[in-house]
């Protein structure tokens, strides 16, 4: 008899459980979604505008970070920058001999107001920039500390590759004058663009005309002065000491946050004045003289001579930062082998005990008034080209260049190009 009633009772129980789950599923999902929103705050897609970016990977949209709960690694285009936050990425931290894992000097600073600024574009740094899949339409401002190849070696790539990738406005380069006009930023920019005349001319009519322009702004290397001020952002250029007259550093102020980049220099009073108390202070930290001599075969005397008018050894970096006392000191511009890093830290810590990062390529810093997060970016080593904007597609183009009849007669008759689609 018990078995006779067991099946109906079990069926009623199962039906009841199913009804309960169906009734509570919506509430459960609502609670789960609310908790996730508190953690990651998903943001709806931005409205379509002429400059709406299309560089995010398909099927992914960036999320805001709440309560400074950042993932352990930074994955490009997965995080929104907070409205009162800046994000700094090291595009290159090495020297003139760019290595596969350590390019020459380059930095990208993104602000919560949407602005993006580049500081130096040394050889190889463009590769890391491409891997980050940025919105190229916003990469139209670069500030160069001096004209050594390890600080400007990829300006040509930024000009031309950035134009191909989505920039449809001129590229503006800010930097120092020289002791004579031919040693300054304007002459460098004019000569660089002239060297690529064939490349630029070949793209007439195919790319937005304005994107191929390079506009140089040169400020006197001997004085401290504001060289950029717009949308609440102020950038100050100040003198530095590096081999030859014409090296500078920069300080950016925005929303009560400050970023200072010293370029390459021995410790200077100008850096001390500009960097004191800054949120992020970047200064070169070269090899120790002994290690430099070991690596290069030079004498210790020759290595020390490099520190007299060109570079700052780790002990000098430590003393400088002890005087500056930034929220975070960032050291760069040395070959970062394990032994080099050990010696650098030991020498720095003899005089500086504050927050410190020995920068490596693709280190990322998120900076806000009450928090600094330091981690590494994880990037695709074979990134596909990023998408462009509607503004890029609609930007004015010059008349398209036609092949000459002589070249057309040289086309192989065994090949037929694809037919043009009907409009």
At a glance:
The chain is 32% helix and 21% strand. By secondary structure, it is an alpha/beta fold. The protein has a domain at 83-377: Metallo-beta-lactamase, Chain A, CATH 3.60.15.
Kindly describe this structure.
- By secondary structure, the chain is an alpha/beta fold.
- The protein has a domain at 83-377: Metallo-beta-lactamase, Chain A, CATH 3.60.15.10.
- Helix content is 32%, strand content 21%.
- It contains 13 helices and 16 strands.
- The strands form two sheets. Strands 1-16-15-2-3-4-5-6-7 form a nine-stranded mixed beta sheet. It has a seven-stranded mixed beta sheet with strand order 8-9-10-11-12-13-14.
- The radius of gyration is 27 Å and the shape is globular.
Fold-level CATH name of the domain at 83-377: Metallo-beta-lactamase, Chain A
Helical percentage: 25-40%
CATH architectural label of the domain at 83-377: 4-Layer Sandwich
What is the CATH H-level superfamily of the domain at 83-377?
Ribonuclease Z/Hydroxyacylglutathione hydrolase-like
Compute the number of strand runs: 16
Q: What ranges have pLDDT less than 50 throughout 5 or more consecutive residues?
A: 9-15, 19-49
Q: Which shape, going by the Cα principal axes?
A: globular
- Determine the number of helices (DSSP H or I, runs of at least 4 residues): 13
């Amino acid at each position: 008899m018990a078995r006779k009633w067991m099946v109906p009772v079990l069926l009623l129980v199962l039906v009841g459980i199913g009804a309960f789950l169906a009734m509570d599923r919506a509430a459960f999902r609502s609670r789960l979604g609310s908790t996730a929103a508190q953690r990651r705050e998903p943001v709806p897609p931005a409205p379509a505008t002429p400059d709406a970016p299309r560089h995010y990977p398909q099927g992914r949209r960036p999320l805001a970070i709440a309560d400074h709960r950042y993932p352990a690694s930074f994955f490009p285009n997965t995080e929104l920058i907070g409205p009162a936050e800046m994000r700094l990425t090291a595009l290159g931290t090495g020297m003139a001999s760019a290595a596969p894992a350590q390019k020459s000097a380059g930095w990208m600073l993104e602000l919560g107001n949407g602005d993006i600024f580049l500081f130096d574009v040394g050889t190889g740094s463009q590769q890391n920039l491409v891997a980050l899949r940025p919105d190229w339409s916003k990469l139209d401002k670069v500030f160069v500390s001096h004209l050594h190849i390890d600080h400007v070696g990829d300006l040509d790539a930024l000009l031309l590759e950035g134009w191909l990738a989505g920039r449809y406005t001129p590229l503006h380069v800010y930097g120092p004058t020289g002791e004579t006009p031919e040693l300054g930023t304007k002459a460098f920019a004019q000569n660089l663009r002239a060297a690529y005349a064939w490349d630029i001319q070949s793209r007439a009519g195919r790319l937005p005309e304005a994107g191929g322009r390079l506009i140089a702004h040169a400020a006197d290397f001997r004085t401290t002065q504001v060289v950029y001020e717009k949308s609440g952002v102020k950038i100050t250029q100040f003198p530095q000491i590096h081999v030859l007259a014409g090296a500078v550093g920069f300080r950016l102020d925005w929303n009560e946050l400050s970023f200072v980049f010293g370029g390459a220099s021995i410790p200077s009073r100008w850096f001390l004045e500009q960097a004191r108390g800054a949120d992020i202070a970047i200064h070169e930290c070269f090899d120790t003289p002994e290690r430099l001599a070991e690596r290069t075969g030079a004498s210790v005397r020759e290595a020390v001579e490099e520190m007299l008018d060109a570079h700052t050894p780790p002990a000098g970096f430590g003393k400088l930062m002890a005087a500056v006392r930034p929220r975070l000191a960032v050291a760069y511009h040395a070959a970062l082998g394990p032994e080099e890093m050990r010696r650098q830290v030991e020498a720095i810590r003899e005089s500086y005990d504050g927050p410190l990062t020995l920068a490596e390529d693709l280190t990322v810093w998120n900076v806000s008034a009450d928090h600094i997060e330091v981690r590494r970016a994880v990037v695709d080593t074979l990134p596909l080209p990023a998408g462009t904007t509607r503004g890029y597609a609609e930007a004015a183009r010059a008349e398209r260049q036609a092949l000459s009849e002589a070249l057309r007669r040289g086309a192989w008759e065994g090949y037929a190009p694809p037919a043009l689609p009907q409009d």
